[in-house]
Amino acid sequence: MAPFGQRFGTGQPGAAPPRGSRVEGLRHLGRSLRDRGRWLWLPLLRPKTLALIEACTIGLVAGLAAFFLKWGSALVGTWRVQMASGAWPPWLVLPLVGLAGCAIAGWLVQRFAPEAAGSGIPQVKAALTGRPMVAALRLAVTKMLATVLTLGSGLTLGRQGPTVQVGAALAAQLSYWIPTSPDYRRQAIAAGAGAGLAAGFNAPIAGVLFVIEELLQDVSGLTMGPAILASFVGAVVARILGGEALPVNLNVGRAVTAFNPAEIPAYLLLGLMAGYLGAWFNRGVLASLRLGQRLPGLLGRSLPLRMGLAGLVTGGIMALLPSGYWNYSWMRESLVGDSVGDWPIKLATFGLYFLLTLLAFGSGATGGLFAPSLMLGASLGSLVAVLGDRLVEGVEPATYAVVGMGAFFGAVSRVPITAIAIVFEMTADFNVVLPLMMAVVVSYLVAESVDPGSLYGRLLALRGIDPTEGSRPADRLAALQAQDAMHSPVETLDATLTATEVLDTFQRSHHRGFPVMRGGELIGILTQTDLTEATDNGLDPDAPITELMTPHPMAVQVDDSLADVRYLFSRYRLSRLPVLEGRRLVGIVTRSDLLRLESQSLGDEPRRDRPRAMHPSYGVYRVRAPKTGRGLLLVPLANPHTAGAMLRLALVIAQERQYAIECLHVVPVPNGRPPSEAVVDLNRFRPWLDDAVAIGQRWQVPIHVQARTTHNISQAILETIHGSHANGILLGWQGEQAPADRAFGTVTDDLISQAPCDVLLVKWSQEVFAAIARRPHAPLRDLYPQPRLDRWLVPVSGGPNIQRALQLMPGLAKLSQTPEVILCQVHTPESGPVETQTMDRAWRRLSRRVPTRAVCSQGTQIAETILALADEHFCDAIAIGASRDSLLQRALHGNLPKIVARRHRGTTLIVRAAR
After folding, report:
1. Which residues are CB-contacts of 800 (< 8 A; sequence separation ≥ 6)?
2. In sequence order, what are the residues at sequence separation of 6 or more whose Cβ sits closer than 8 angstroms to the Cβ of residue 690?
3. Distance from C-alpha of 188 to C-alpha of 456, rounded to nearest angstrom
């Protein structure tokens, strides 16, 4: 392990620091200051000294922030109690102050820094997984002001969790000011979080252990050095400025604590009860958050309203209690009083504080769970002291209270070592060490058995963030997975095809193997070798594909390592492997894909099939449905007037193919600011996305929703396609005039040419826009408008685009009670003899599920003939394959799908199959 300070370089004398590292940035800063004529002491420019200065600075600002939170919340809380004790009645003052203060705090958070909601520790863990901490300085200031108002207004939350986030945010801001590498920035954020905890509790060792045990789970010198120094400086600053050692005034000294071995059964019981109640406390926290998100109407979307309501209810309950409860001082004394006879009051206090904490946290208020868990633990310990007094005479209730604090804290936060350290540092009493260790270990084991998993990791998962993202190894080769090498989406074969149709597919494609699907489920794989063997044995042209394929093929999951994939290739002499996400086929990986990606990794070359940008798009809102389908259809929602029709069309396709739907709203931001730092008003589009989730529950189709900020709309959509492994995308087009070098428009053309999945482009009929004019503000949940789509015209050709359109017809037919599909084949006088084999095969397959008829027509202009057929047969919609003509042909004759879509008065669906 490299010593602290030496870790910034290579450890070799005279070696240059790595490019982009923290020491290089700090040296550049030093050189720029010297060039301006400012005098600097030269030894301060050494890497070790600069690292010490940075860690000390992080601890200093974290300590100052902790003092401000303590002083500010105490000032507001004292003013509130004085107002309630004066001329104004408490039943009026306490609820109104709670309502106003919490509502203002919620407005600050929602307006300036939405990431400041809650305790802040899940957000810190998200930053440590690689997600940027957006506008860190603004986040820290907003968090401090909102926390002061929240706690001062009477909510039963703590200031230590916000102190952790504020310390991490200030450390992140400092790392942005001083150029540094992502790895060192991650350590600085963790050090800031540890300093915030240390300053909040005056417990530096606990701050370091919390970083190691919960945040980074790393004990390297790179982690220990900054965390130790920042934590100790933060605790010293907080103590100098007048911080208390305990969040509750226990007045614990050596004279009032004692341990008798005869009390061990009571302490074990305390650990059991703390573990069980702590697990249920965590469940209550998660349930209260889910309930807050599901509240109907504006209340569910507005953080100020939810927080104001929580403050109003809390203030109303406090007004009914004795005045000591107004600032929780009498409550704290009752938890750890010297008498064991007032247990009914302590039991009622425990239950009241338990419920009020769930109410406050479920509203999304800025406040932590550290202090509430310690106070609940102290209350529980005081209750168990009653039983201990019956076992052994002369027990000390304060000892049980202190042990209960550590046991309940460890059960809630799942950091037993930190729990032991934090209580011992606050009490500095060796009499509590042995019972504390016993109770904490028992409570941790019980809590893990009742409700396993970290609370903060589950809070992250509730926000749609994988808490394990940041634990992947730094070595890129060691971190490669199947999804990094696969092709997605996949060209597949339907199980209903015959041998003749399969031979046609192989002749048109450069692929030598295809997965075989039935109802969206992988049932086999068919390769060129399989066809060769069948031909040698006498191939029946009408033989079903199921007789030719290899059933139950070997497959890998998206997160399987490439080492496992390589082993399967070598062990079983395979050339390709399907890639699954659960049971859903999302890609296919071949030997050449594996070799190419490994070569790119060794040469540090970027993948060419992934979108590249200086500033990638940034997700600002995301809700995942509890279920996933066998595929995914992406639906960007941009036009509120046609969103209902778009989603209805997507629902019938998803039901037919057993897909899930991902609704995407893209928010463009100016180029002068990174998308991750843009301020977005979530209230503008949240009703859309919330309605989409409710529609999915009604239709029994999983619907995921997300919103992203970006500089480039097509880039954001392409990034979403790659990230979610989308099988298709449904786009809308209003028929507007495109630039001369574009067919449908910049974004649409980019997606048609670059998206690796199916692309469905719909231009709605004039009937739709007339209906929109009648109800311009119809909510999305009404799926309005619902155009008439009874009769479809499908021009048939031999390309993959029209074949994919034909596969969509059974689903699209569900939009009508009397559906009909008309297959047409148009030929010109100079095209020679008419071949109808393709249309005959399409008719045989489609007529089994949808009423279908076929017609042939001749004309000099194909587009004119198709439009005439649509008018002749009174067709409501046309489904046509995207153009595969060369650039010269499109210049001479025009883009056929565009001409048809622009001139057809009904609905037009243009289909481009996955590449």
Report:
1. 491, 508, 509, 881, 913
2. 300, 301, 705
3. 20
Sign of CA dihedral 138, 141, 143, 145: negative
Place of tokens 């025009």: 894
Q: Which residues pair with 878 in a beta bridge?
A: 793, 908
DSSP letter for each residue of 534-563 = HHHT---TT-BGGGTSEES---EETTSBHH
Give the pLDDT confidence of 88-110 residue by residue, as tens digits.
Answer: 888 888 889 889 989 998 899 88
Residue 2 has pLDDT above 50, yes or no: no
Burial of 626 (0-12, 13-18, 19+ CB in 10 A): exposed
Q: Give the model's pLDDT for residue 478.
A: 47
Long-range pairs, 732-741, Cβ under 8 A, ≥24: 732/638, 732/639, 732/642, 732/646, 732/761, 732/762, 732/763, 732/764, 733/761, 733/762, 733/763, 733/901, 734/639, 734/763, 734/764, 735/763, 735/901, 735/902
Largest Cα–Cα distance of the chain, in whole Å? 110
Reported pTM? 0.53
Asked if the peptide bond before residue 416 counts as cis, ω within 30 degrees of 0, the response is no
**Partners of 728 in the β-ladder:** 633, 758
Are 911 and 808 contacting, i.e. CB atoms less than 8 angstroms apart? yes
pLDDT (mean) for 869-882: 89
Per the CB < 8 A criterion, the answer to whether 781 and 651 are in contact is: no
Unique residue bearing structure tokens 């915030």: 196
Amino acid at 553: P
Average pLDDT over residues 756-785: 83
Q: In this predicted structure, what is the pLDDT of residue 494?
A: 84
DSSP 882: P
Contact, 360 vs 399, CB < 8 A?
no
Question: CA 573, 576, 578: angle at the middle one, nearest 5?
Answer: 125
